[in-house]
Amino acid sequence: MVQASLKLVLEPIYEAEFHPCSYGFRPERRTHDAVAEMRLLASNSYEWVLEADIAACFDEISHPDLMDRLRHRIGDKRVLAVVKAFLKAGILSETGNIRDTDTGTPQGGILSPLLANVALSALDEHFAAKWTDRVERARRRRHGLANYRLIRYADDFAIMVSGTRAHAEALLDEVAEVLSRLGLRLAMDKTRVVHIDEGLDFLGWRIQRHRKRGTSKYYVYTYPAQKAVRSCAGKIKAICWQDVNLPLEALIKQLNSLLRGWTAYFRPGVSHRAFEFLRAVVWRQVFGWLRRKHRKTSWKELRRRYCRGGWWPVDGEKKLFNPAAVRTTRYRYRGAAIPSPWPSTA
Q1: Residue 336: pLDDT band with limits 50, 70, 90
Q2: In DSSP terms, which residues pair with 53 in a beta bridge?
Q3: How far is CA 17 from the centre of its chain?
Q4: Which of 28, 38, 162, 264 is the most buried (most CB within 10 A)?
Q5: pLDDT at 345 over 60
């Protein structure tokens, strides 16, 4: 209750000042906006990407640095005292012991994502200063200098570079310096510089430039990353390897919930092939479950009882969701059109 009240107080203050390059845990913003911006920039000369990962971001944010950033905007010492008490409250372990929290924002709290955004907004501010007006960006290109654009979703971020690989690699020390002021560091084993032709995985999506089939033109495509597809397939298998004494309706209900959510997230992209793959996986797994449930029953009888003579499982009013039937769309980049509940009055 106290955290929710604090969020109601702090969020309007900071939302009016957060930069548009930040998308995570903010009202009216979603992962699709971040992916759409990356696709737009990659299609317009921002071909090099610094794909970065912050090591244990929520666990290592410096409390003094975070409180300093809060004091710049919050003058009420009572509010600051409650925030500090929340940060220092400690974590109750499974054994009943309380572990001190000298750094970080406790994950799972209502207020934690907002405080993490307040801290990481230092990174947004640093690169927003480099995102100059169109005339200045054109002048920099003429003089062989690079232009940069940060895209951040909570602690996942990428920096799009219109320049060379050397320009992108030079950003590593710059980013590390900004993060060090917050008590954070880059996970170097997960941080790399890639070209858009090589592609990268970001927020579950694969973003890569390919030649369009049948033409000589190249376009940037977004489609489900292999890791996301394998994860969904693994969940389908886990559901279908549970107790065969359950009715088929109960199994279908669990699978439909998973498949509807997954396809809704990946619908705005080039996802039809992934949907067809999941259709084959779910069909094979459900029929494997039925064969284990009725070991001595023939295929013909299984189809009569559970597919109404066809090939797609149905039980009463519950029909297995077909991922391949989902029509894909294109998510349009919204940019400055994203509404804010608390617009800046400056």
Answers
A1: confident
A2: 156
A3: 22
A4: 38
A5: no
What is the rounded distance in angstroms from the CA atom of residue 258 to the CA atom of residue 160?
33
Asked if 201 and 227 touch (Cβ cutoff 8 Å), the reply is yes
In the prediction, which pLDDT does 337 show? Answer: 87
Quick one: DSSP state of residue 242?
Answer: S
Kindly state the greatest CA–CA separation across the chain: 76
% of the chain beyond a pLDDT of 70: 98
Summarize pLDDT for 107-146 with one digit per residue, the tens.
778 899 999 999 999 999 999 988 878 899 899 989 999 9
CA distance 134 to 118: 28
Q: CA separation (Å) from 238 to 225, 281, 313, 321?
A: 20, 12, 18, 17
DSSP-assigned letter for residue 335: G
Q: How many C-beta neighbours within 10 Å does residue 107 have?
A: 12
Neighbours of 75 (CB within 10 A): 8
Give, in degrees to the nearest 5, the angle at Cα 59 between 261 and 152. 55
3-state secondary structure of 327: coil
Alpha-carbon span 81 to 204, nearest angstrom: 38
Question: Is residue 67 packed enough to be buried (19+ CB in 10 Å), middle (13-18) or exposed (0-12)?
Answer: middle
54: which DSSP letter? B
> Percent of the chain beyond pLDDT 90?
77
State pTM to two decimals: 0.91
Rg (CA), the chain: 24
Q: Name the token pair of 175.
A: 């980013």
Taking Cα atoms as reference points, which of 166, 134, 135, 167 lies closest to residue 148?
A: 167
The set of residues, in sequence order, having a beta carbon less than 8 Å from that of 256 and lying 6+ positions away, is 318, 320, 321
Q: Count the alpha carbons within 13 Å of 271 in the hemisphere toward its beta carbon.
A: 27
Q: Which of 57-61, 129-133, 173-177, 202-206 has the lowest mean pLDDT?
A: 129-133
* Alpha-carbon span 300 to 109, nearest angstrom: 53
**Residue 29: closest CA among 240, 336, 329:** 336
- CA distances from residue 288 to 192, 249, 266 in whole angstroms, order as listed: 42, 15, 27
Measured CA to CA, the distance from residue 45 to residue 35 in angstroms comes to 16
Pairing of strands 48-53, 156-162: antiparallel
